[in-house]
């Protein structure tokens, strides 16, 4: 089973700053990695798929990079609405297997 | 417009059975995998299992195999998640999701299941 480990667990930053979130896989997932954002009381939404492709309607300040076992989600300049929990997900053995990371909480400093 | 509309919140007692639903619309229901994701209070996302409504091919996460049953009725574009005997630890929000090439591109609004004596 592939395990995804996200770091840090919590990231405290101010609006306008750059955020860098990490997701590490226990074995290679090639580029089969996605990022989701979840705000309180809402369902998650897809931000990035295939490691670096932005989903429809996602602002350009969100970018993804990486391959193999190490991946990064970067938010270039934080907006107030970006403070949320972010999850990575892999689908290297799809179907059927997918796994999620445990999440990174991005909070206002 | 693609929509996944889930059934409403449930309050049950331990040992009771439950079946929650998810109706898809705005797309070809039989052409995409549908799945369920659990989120326990204050916790992360857990993949439970998936079904391909076109042929009812169903797969489960090892963590949920034998604990729940996933099914679908393609005639009414509806997927289901059911329990035969609920436990307090089943208390959670359950999301119905649509997969596109292994990525979740649409989420239902969630069904909150509370199991308490």
Structural commentary:
The complex is a heterodimer of chains A (109) and B (117). Chain A is mainly beta and 109 residues long. Chain A is built from no helices and eleven strands. In chain A, the strands form two sheets. In chain A, strands 2, 4, 5, 6, 9, 10 and 11 form a seven-stranded mixed sheet that branches. A four-stranded antiparallel sheet of chain A has the order 1-3-8-7, with no helix packed on it. Chain A is globular, with a radius of gyration of 13 Å. With 117 residues, chain B is mostly beta strands. In chain B, strands 2, 4, 5, 6, 9, 10 and 11 form a seven-stranded mixed sheet that branches. Chain B has a four-stranded antiparallel sheet with strand order 1-3-8-7, with no helix packed on it. The radius of gyration of chain B is 13 Å and the shape is globular. The mean pLDDT of chain B is 96. At the A-B interface, β4, β5, β9 and β10 of A face β5 and β10 of B.
Task: Give a brief outline of the structure.
The complex is a heterodimer of chains A (109) and B (117). Chain A has 109 residues and is mainly β.
Radius of gyration of chain A, taken over Cα atoms and rounded to an integer in Å: 13 Å
- Please work out how many helical segments of chain A DSSP would assign: 0
Kindly report the average pLDDT value of chain B: 96
| Total strands of chain A | 11
- Measured by DSSP, the beta-strand proportion of chain B falls in over 45%
User: Separation of termini of chain A?
Assistant: 36 Å
Q: Please, what is the average pLDDT of chain A?
A: 95
| Beta-strand content bin of chain A | over 45%
Q: What coarse outline of chain B follows from CA principal-axis ratios?
A: globular
Main sheet overview of chain B: 7 strands, mixed
């Amino acid at each position: 089973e592939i395990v995804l480990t996200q770091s840090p667990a919590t990231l405290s930053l101010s609006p306008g700053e750059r955020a860098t979130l990490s997701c590490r896989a226990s074995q290679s997932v090639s580029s089969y990695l996605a990022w989701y954002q979840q705000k309180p009381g809402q369902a998650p939404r897809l931000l990035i798929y295939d490691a670096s492709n932005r989903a429809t309607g996602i602002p350009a300040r969100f970018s993804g990079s990486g391959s193999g076992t190490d991946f990064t989600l970067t938010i270039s300049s934080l907006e107030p609405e970006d403070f949320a929990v972010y999850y990575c997900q892999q689908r290297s053995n799809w179907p059927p297997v997918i796994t999620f990371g445990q999440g990174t909480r991005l909070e206002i400093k | 417009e693609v929509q996944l509309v889930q059934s409403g919140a449930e309050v049950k007692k331990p040992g009771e059975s439950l079946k929650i639903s998810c109706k898809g619309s705005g797309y070809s229901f039989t052409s995409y995998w549908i799945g369920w994701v659990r989120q326990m209070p204050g916790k992360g996302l857990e993949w439970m299992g998936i079904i391909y409504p076109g042929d009812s091919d169903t797969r489960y996460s090892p963590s949920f195999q034998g604990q729940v049953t996933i099914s679908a009725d393609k005639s009414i574009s509806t997927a289901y998640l059911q329990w035969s005997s609920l436990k307090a630890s089943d208390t959670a929000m359950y999301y119905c999701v649509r997969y596109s090439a292994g990525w979740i591109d649409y989420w239902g609004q969630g069904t909150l299941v509370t199991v308490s004596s």
